[in-house]
Amino acid sequence: xxxxxxxxxxxxxxxxxxxxxxxxxxxxxxxxxxxxxxxxxxxxxxxxxxxxxxxxxxxxxxxxxxxxxxxxxxxxxxxxxxxxxxxxxxxxxxxxxxxxxxxxxxxxxxxxxxxxxxxxxxxxxxxxxxxxxxxxxxxxxxxxxxxxxxxxxxxxxxxxxxxxxxxxxxxxxxxxxxxxxxxxxxxxxxxxxxxxxxxxxxxxxxxxxxxxxxxxxxxxxxxxxxxxxxxxxxxxxxxxxxxxxxxxxxxxxxxxxxxxxxxxxxxxxxxxxxxxxxxxxxxxxxxxxxxxxxxxxxxxxxxxxxxxxxxxxxxxxxxxxxxxxxxxxxxxxxxxxxxxxxxxxxxxxxxxxxxxxxxxxxxxxxxxxxxxxxxxxxxxxxxxxxxxxxxxxxxxxxxxxxxxxxxxxxxxxxxxxxxxxxxxxxxxxxxxxxxxxxxxxxxxxxxxxxxxxxxxxxxxxxxxxxxxxxxxxxxxxxxxxxxxxxxxxxxxxxxxxxxxxxxxxxxxxxxxxxxxxxxxxxxxxxxxxxxxxxxxxxxxxxxxxxxxxxxxxxxxxxxxxxxxxxxxxxxxxxxxxxxxxxxxxxxxxxxxxxxxxxxxxxxxxxxxxxxxxxxxxxxxxxxxxxxxxxxxxxxxxxxxxxxxxxxxxxxxxxxxxxxxxxxxxxxxxxxxxxxxxxxxxxxxxxxxxxxxxxxxxxxxxxxxxxxxxxxxxxxxxxxxxxxxxxxxxxxxxxxxxxxxxxxxxxxxxxxxxxxxxxxxxxxxxxxxxxxxxxxxxxxxxxxxxxxxxxxx
Length: 792
Known about the structure:
- The chain is 30% helix and 20% strand.
- The protein is globular, with a radius of gyration of 28 Å.
- The protein has 4 domains: 3-165, Sandwich (Immunoglobulin-like); 188-247 and 279-324 and 354-551, TIM Barrel (Alpha-Beta Barrel), CATH 3.20.20.80; 567-664, no CATH class; 697-788, Golgi alpha-mannosidase II (Immunoglobulin-like, Sandwich), CATH 2.60.40.
- InterPro entries: GH, GHL5.
């Protein structure tokens, strides 16, 4: 049936929706309260046999567009549409339906619209309006729940009720039900995952299959294989952002239309950008980045949540990382100007004081978490600010952060409030932020309403380089803070931010060469260090978090291939990571860096020479690409790579680096090279923390933490902790420097350590199982954990 024949406008329901909106705006106690109620009706949703569409479109008022020039645009494919194909040209039919308006809002209710499901593609839609010259303009839906071709293309009407009804973790939610919303508390520990590099498939579906395979093997009692341990021993999985990100600055677009005599033809490209997740455009935040979807269906995120919730032995929490503190400049293309409050270092600030924007952002968050997340990590909470004209200052919007934590979710009939983590380093980016930040601003503000609210701790924030000599003693004052008030901090030094910063360190600094023979070994061991992990899991309070790429000793960096204008500059800044993460052997592997090799960089040494010149020329020319290309062409002897460099070729080299690095960072490549003793030790360490969850608490009056004195060229930490049942845990870790000489750790003059009954619980490699106590020589990255039961 033709689209125009099957679609009917429900005039009565449409007018009722407009009347309801007008009533909310008139009778609500505040404009924001009205906007919150209206935001629940925005976007597109099937409702029985009908479908309701709602848009906030103040630009129509700005342009004084009359109601008769505003329509809902429906687009239906005239031939089968396969969302798993890389490219296809599909003929669409288009139908325009008049909408009804109430101030800045437009609504319409339709019969006959097809909603998408796991097995069916639905109708696509947008709002469109006609100007006085007869030109048409499209308004996309920022609250869409399915964006198969990204946030800059028409959205798909999607049946969320069917998606939720088909989820397989109903029993998990039923067990949480009660008369009041369930409040999730913190897990014991967290595995942080970047979906595109976590498995060979690089999608949510492939990650789900991986966890399901692990679950099946555990249930059947099968032995663990190489790499399985990397994903086990965790109470929670935290994904780097999974919302839509930027697209290619200069195209091609994933949805490109051509009008002809045969109707509308759309050139459709499966979204294929690579991104580390934080370059969001705000539009589409309520749904899933199509680049992460193997099937193009948002159900894949529900599937992952259900697999984690049904994991044998103990359910795993799913934590989603949300980015509402900024928008990339591309967001200006996807959203109206009322969303933005001016530029910042990332792109654009958001106008949190606008009640419509505030309500819509919170609604996006609510819809996203309803996919099945148990926790929320808020990126860059220090960036949620508003301008106070009275004081001429930017103020932190702590009320908005509180509102984020107050949202009540509902999944499978169970209402709940997620566990919340805030990354907040205020007064960052103030120059003295590393010294002056307390990392407790949100914790202190929300303590009265939520004692379980968390922040990233000081050793988890970006600028931590544990492979530079003197790092640990220089951070000792922060460690003391962790012992006293770290119970509500995320701990650990390896995450997506710290590992990236580590790859940007100048290798000419005072590097701890005892960590390895090569720079790659040094970097790997610095962020997957037995002693550091032992300190994090057996001594420090808080909730430990590990980054999969670090524990897998895979590569990592700033991955984004959408840039055109600044792509060469970004690569010049990232070029130093070649010194830390790529050696001649890894570059020579045929599957690695194939694009750069095709451009003429046949060896690592040739690429390294090119990268010595590029950053310097970016700086001295103040990023003049024409001059950079000219000067590179004149280098003698001639640089490897393209025979002649011009601006387009420079951009081609930059794109090749980003695409090759994205492939190179995949965890699947490093599994076969992992050291079984290290991965087995790390799993034992994680399980130890899970068996002793009381270690999350702050140090008590009988607990002790110190370093061996005199320092004598090495940093050795000691920790003695007392559990609520009388159990004691003594940890000694060699963080850096020369060996200790032979000594018995249990004879150290630490109050509470004396007496018998101590047993060795954990030994960091290379200490063997044969060591059960007595004198030992500790070297860099070695450590021991002893336990003593009550009454011993």
